[in-house]
Design brief:
This protein is α/β, with parallel strands linked by helices. It has two domains: about 170 residues, no CATH class; about 200 residues, no CATH class. It contains 16 helices and twelve strands. Strand 1 and strand 2 form a beta hairpin. Helix 3 crosses helix 5 and helix 15 crosses helix 16. The radius of gyration is 27 Å and the shape is elongated. It starts with a helix and ends with a helix. It comes from Streptomyces curacoi.
């Protein structure tokens, strides 16, 4: 295998003896950078059988793609299995180390570009983009073989050697930009927490008109108080482990944030234009994502004990005494690092600890460990 990889590294296509058997795909022929490529559809049942990963035991310079992250696979497979009627997977991109023969339908125009692509069964199919989708499909098929008759788009390129395959991987990922988390929440109609966050932006006086729906960071001049992603994670922490239906969870989240609003006067001052959103972000930390997340986690501890509004409102009342000003030296190292609000897991935990202490709540063992490290100066 390493000998073959060495040949690919030198840019040579490794010859293969034909078995006389071949795959036939309906395809459309195209041209990019003077090279022909072919777009086709492939049944899912064939994906694990014909599309291979690059050699896992080779060093990075002799591979044409990243090492498979197996931790991602269960979630991807579950996405297919849980959404059999509306899952969406984008096309795989593969290089074919073998002869590809395209037989067009003849004629002119579109007919000349459509036809059948014949590839020997002993050809080697190397995925340039989509190895995690391929592995997730394999996992999903084991649980639901009926998915095998469904199809996924595949784009075939001729394998021109390792250097070309590596360049294809680099080019395919060079300009890939993960969308902002906020717009992902805005457009996600499956995730219950996303639905709750959107409902609050529409119906809660605390958030209506003051949430940035697309971006996950607020510009210095933004008039918004929160980002949708910050509200999402705050709700996620707030409702974690509570056995509530969708309506109950939405009502509880709305009730909590409106109760918190009464304890955080600066929020209302922004809505009444006594204070600008820019001034609040500059001078306070409680419109930042770390504060919403920490408030949600602390309140979740109380809500696990009681969802009685009268009882939990009384338990969170001491939040009115918290000094949220950036000038408060207590925040340095907890929520603020080097003059900037930090959203790291450790800083969220330290902020949670600070609020727990104000509310007289005990720390979990992990929170105590982080707190001890902070007090020793190790954090």
């Amino acid at each position: 295998m390493k000998t073959e990889a060495a040949s690919r590294a030198a840019g040579r296509v490794v010859p293969r003896a034909s078995t006389g058997f071949e795959y036939t795909f309906p395809a459309i022929r195209g041209v990019q950078a003077g090279r022909e490529f072919y777009a086709s559809m492939c049944p899912l049942r064939l994906i694990p059988k014909i599309f291979l990963f690059d050699e896992d035991d080779l060093s990075a310079e002799l591979r044409a793609q990243r090492v498979l992250n197996k931790g991602r696979l269960p979630a991807l497979a579950r996405y297919i299995l849980d959404n059999p009627d509306d899952y969406v997977f984008s096309a795989l991109t593969a290089s074919v180390d073998g002869d590809m023969i395209f037989e067009s339908q003849g004629g002119e125009g579109v007919a000349h570009r459509t036809g059948q692509l014949r590839i020997p069964m002993d050809a080697r199919f190397l995925i340039n983009d989509g190895q995690h989708r391929r592995a997730a499909i394999e996992l999903a098929l084991k649980e639901n073989p009926d998915l095998g008759d469904e199809t996924i788009a595949v784009v075939f390129f001729c394998d021109a050697g390792l250097a070309r395959s590596q360049q294809m991987f680099a080019d395919l990922n060079r300009h890939a930009v993960r969308p902002a988390r906020s717009i992902g929440v805005l457009y996600d109609h499956r995730d219950p927490n996303a639905q709750i966050a959107r409902a609050l932006t529409e119906h809660s006086a605390v958030f209506k008109g003051f949430v940035e729906m697309e971006k996950s960071t607020l510009s210095a001049r933004s008039r918004k108080m929160f980002t949708l992603s910050a509200l999402y994670y705050g709700n996620q922490a707030l409702l974690q482990g509570l056995e509530l239906n969708q309506d109950e969870a939405t009502s509880l989240a709305r009730a909590f944030w409106e109760a918190a609003d009464r304890l955080l006067p600066e929020w209302e001052q922004v809505r009444s234009r006594q204070l600008s959103a820019q001034e609040m972000r500059r001078d306070f930390i409680h419109s930042h994502g770390i504060a919403l997340h920490a408030l949600g986690r602390v309140a979740n501890t109380i809500l696990r004990e009681t969802t009685s509004a009268a009882k939990w409102n009384k338990r969170i009342a001491p939040l009115k005494d918290v000094n949220w000003s950036r000038a408060n030296a207590d925040w340095e190292g907890r929520a603020i690092v080097g003059g900037r609000v930090s959203k790291s897991h450790q800083n969220v935990t330290l902020t949670v600890n600070y609020l727990r202490q104000h509310l007289g709540l005990p720390l979990s063992p992990e929170e105590q460990r982080v707190e001890d490290a902070y007090l020793r100066g190790d954090a």
